[in-house]
Design brief:
The chain has helices spanning 20-39, 45-60, 100-115, 121-127, 133-153, and strands at 2-6, 9-13, 68-72, 80-83, 88-92. It has five helices and five strands, in the order ββααβββααα. The chain has a three-stranded mixed beta sheet with strand order 3-5-4. The protein has a two-stranded antiparallel ribbon with strand order 1-2. Residues 151-155 have low confidence and may be disordered. Helix content is 52%, strand content 15%. It folds into two domains: 2-39, no CATH class; 45-153, Zincin-like (2-Layer Sandwich), CATH 3.30.2010.10.
Amino acid sequence: MSAYREDGRTVVLIPDRMSAAEEKRWVERMLDRLDARESRQIRGDDELAARACELSRKYLGGRAKPRSVRWVTNQNTRWGSCTPSEGTIRLSHRLQGMPEYVVDYVLLHELAHLLEPDHGSRFWALLEAYPRTERARGYLEGVVAARLPAQRESH
């Protein structure tokens, strides 16, 4: 079994003897592995800014226009932050190496703050357009939960 990108398409190769349920499970697993592999190719700030523009265009009608998007190493309790008045977005370096859809979700979350500063219903309505919102949130919650026992033991 393998997965790769070719000419803007994703190709997943699996045995044809699988049931529909097995096929679905393995395709999701292979896509996650592909996302993780691609995400490990760490983007610089310029690539991150370009991705922000692409996500804004695709999911927010191009309305979110950040002045600056960059990685930071001083965010250890947040995945990202946004200062709407300045148009700046910062993503935690802890996201580097996570699956692409997770990084995209956090970036899109911060882009949405440029349009809606708080976490009200209008803010969450903006994120409904991104099909992997719930999955990405679950992934991040899992990362946090996995770290909690280790933190408790150290106190």
